[in-house]
Specification:
It is a single chain. The chain is an alpha/beta fold and 330 residues long. It has 2 domains: 3-195, P-loop containing nucleotide triphosphate hydrolases (Rossmann fold, 3-Layer(aba) Sandwich), CATH 3.40.50.300; 213-318, GMP Synthetase, Chain A, domain 3 (2-Layer Sandwich), CATH 3.30.300. The chain is 40% helix and 20% strand. The chain has helices spanning 3-6, 10-26, 42-50, 94-109, 132-139, 155-168, 185-195, 213-228, 233-236, 264-271, 276-293, 313-318; strands spanning 28-36, 68-74, 77-83, 112-118, 143-148, 173-176, 238-245, 253-261, 297-305. The protein has a 6-stranded mixed beta sheet, with helices on both faces. Helix 8 (213-228) packs antiparallel against helix 11 (276-293). The two termini are 40 Å apart. Its main location: plastid. Residues 62-66 are annotated as: G2. Residues 148-151 are annotated as: G4. Residues 177-179 are annotated as: G5. InterPro entries: G_ERA_dom, GTP-bd, GTPase_Era-like, KH_dom-like_a/b, KH_dom_type_2, KH_sf_prok-type, P-loop_NTPase, Small_GTP-bd.
Length: 330
């Protein structure tokens, strides 16, 4: 979009404006929030719609903490998707409270919604875990109920559950999918495009997220913690990219990472005997980070104890849970 050149001629600038208005009359764009309980496959679905991995995925619930923004662009549309934390009714820490605020904010700011449920579970009222305000918001917007993980159940069961939800959920439409294997993804995309309002693209069409590389580096590292550690360690760990220095090849990029936990005992588990567990973690994370940034990387990792960081509102805002991504060390 060459605005500077258009200012030189009144006619050319007018032509530009007319062209822009014409594009807006044909182009569709808008925001989509993915809402659902923990571990129903929201992140996998977002990755499938965009066509590449942005949100981290593990078998453990509440993997997603931040509201991840992904961008899917086509010739005549652009959808901006919010992958949100899983909806929980019992909030144990300030972190849980801020994550639920993030879900509500995404719901408010969206043009349409994807409500995701696990088809493997018995049919239930999908709006039952949400408060009245959230339910009213959802009912006021175009909403698609996505029944995920259909690859795990028989076709006859899929049909029965789809019919139950079509009669009892109150949603505009119900589509069974397997986000893991890409089944039904195109049908979901077509539904979304049909509901997007007219308007220009909000972002350049060649990008898939507004987040910086260092955000995804921290997310990849956190994903490996979820995959390699058990019990409370994934949930009490915070990963911050303190410094990221890109270097000319063949030199490796330098990435300084700090991992915060709440207790010395958790730090000991994270490190492992003679630091072996941390070395395994670092290797697994480095390989995925190098694949993501398409460059060789050197990681410097420090593990620190910050007591009750999940209850500290000031710290949580510093770490980006108020909606902004922060990466500076304390």
């Amino acid at each position: 979009m060459k605005v500077a050149a258009d200012h030189r001629s009144g006619n050319s600038f007018l032509d530009f404006l007319l062209s822009f208005v014409a594009d807006c009359s044909k182009f569709q764009s808008g925001y989509v929030a993915l809402i659902g309980k923990p571990n129903v496959g929201k992140s996998t679905l977002l990755n499938g719609i965009i066509g590449q991995k942005l949100s981290i995925v593990t078998a453990k619930p509440q993997t997603t903490r931040h509201r991840i923004l992904g961008i899917c662009s086509g010739p005549n549309y652009q959808m901006i998707l919010y992958d949100t934390p899983g909806v929980i009714t019992k909030q144990m820490h300030k972190l849980d409270e801020l994550m639920m605020k993030s879900v509500r904010s995404a719901t408010i700011n969206s043009d349409c919604l994807l409500l995701i449920a696990d088809i493997c579970h018995p049919p239930e009222q999908v709006l039952g875990t949400l408060d009245e305000g959230a339910v009213n918001l959802i009912k006021s917007k175009p909403t698609l109920l996505v029944l995920n993980k259909k690859d795990k159940v028989k076709q006859s069961e899929i049909q029965k559950k789809q019919e139950w939800y079509e009669k009892n959920s109150g949603m505009d439409e119900v589509i069974p999918v397997s986000a893991k294997f890409g089944l039904g993804i195109e049908e979901v995309k077509q539904w979304l495009v049909s509901k997007l309002p007219l308007g220009p693209a909000y972002y350049p069409r060649d990008i898939v997220s507004e987040h910086q590389e260092r955000f995804f580096v921290s997310e990849i590292f956190r994903e490996k913690i979820f995959q390699l550690y058990r019990e409370e360690i994934p949930y009490c760990s915070q990963v911050n990219v303190v410094r990221y220095v890109e270097r000319e090849a063949p030199a490796k990029d330098f990435i300084e990472i700090e991992i915060l936990v709440e207790k010395e005992s958790q730090k000991a588990i994270l490190l492992g005997k003679e630091g072996k567990a941390l070395k395994t973690l670092a290797t697994a994370a480095r390989l995925d980070i190098e694949d993501f940034v398409d460059r060789k990387c050197y990681l410097e990792i420090k593990v620190k104890v910050k007591e009750d960081w999940r209850k500290n509102e000031e710290l949580l805002e510093h770490f980006g849970y108020s909606g902004k991504i922060a990466s500076a060390s304390l």
